[in-house]
Write a structure and sequence with these properties.
heterodimer; A: 115 residues; mainly beta; 6-stranded mixed sheet; 4-stranded antiparallel sheet; B: 114 residues; 7-stranded mixed sheet; 11 strands; globular
Chain lengths: 115, 114
């Protein structure tokens, strides 16, 4: 069975600081993809970044980077230079390719950015 | 390019009534997903279509729930004999074929069962 664990219910950071949101996953499937989504208070789910299990390099998208440690089964999201607009719920998700195509989500981490 | 649209955005119903939600995916996407999200939780997978074929169903999808995607375009999710525990946000998402294709979500349909 596939599982995503996000152990930080809430994180607090000041503007312009970097923050790391933790995500660990569990799957026996050798081929999988890891995703991070942002959900602001308005409710829409916004795709941030993707990492494939066979990708050699950590994914980066602007201020977002994914710290992928395959042996530890972790896929932490790093947000550099936090902005007030980064305040939102963040979800880690996984798709195990042999098991199916559904994305399985973690419970999320609430990020609050203060000025 | 319009995104994923869902209708209605909000639905209040009495226990025991039937409700139906509609999702219009991004036009070139052949995969369509339904998720349920309760307050403070992550989205929970309900079901998935590739074109008109329903390929995966979660155990969460009890026999009171049915989903269709006729002609592989829009999809409907019907809940029969609603219960208070069905109160949640129902999210629809679509994606193109491909393992790394991210899901594009609609804004959701919020159901409140009184």
């Amino acid at each position: 069975a596939q599982k995503i664990t996000q152990t930080q219910p809430g994180m607090f950071v000041q503007e312009k600081e970097a923050v790391t949101l933790d995500c660990t996953y569990d799957t026996s499937d050798p081929s999988y993809g890891l995703f991070w989504y942002k959900q602001p208070s308005s409710g829409e789910m916004i795709f941030l970044i993707y990492q494939g299990s066979y990708d050699q390099q950590n994914a980066t998208e602007g201020r977002y980077s994914l710290n992928f440690q395959k042996a530890r089964k972790s896929a932490n999201l790093v947000i550099s230079a936090s902005q007030l607009g980064d305040s939102a719920m963040y979800f880690c998700a996984m798709r195990a390719f042999q098991a199916g195509t559904a994305l399985i989500f973690g419970k999320g981490t609430t990020l609050s950015v203060s000025s | 390019d319009t995104g994923v649209s869902q209708d209605p955005r909000h639905k209040i119903t009495k226990r025991g009534q039937n409700v139906t939600f509609r999702c219009d995916p991004i036009s070139e996407h052949n995969r369509l997903y339904w998720y349920r999200q309760t307050l403070g939780q992550g989205p929970e997978f309900l079901t998935y279509f590739q074109n008109e074929a329903q390929l995966e169903k979660s155990r969460l999808l009890s026999d009171r729930f049915s989903a269709e995607r006729p002609k592989g375009s829009f999809s409907t999710l019907e809940i029969q004999r609603t219960e208070q525990g069905d109160s949640a946000m129902y999210l629809c998402a679509s994606s193109s074929t491909g393992q790394s294709g991210e899901l594009f979500f609609g804004e959701g349909s919020r159901l409140t069962v009184l």
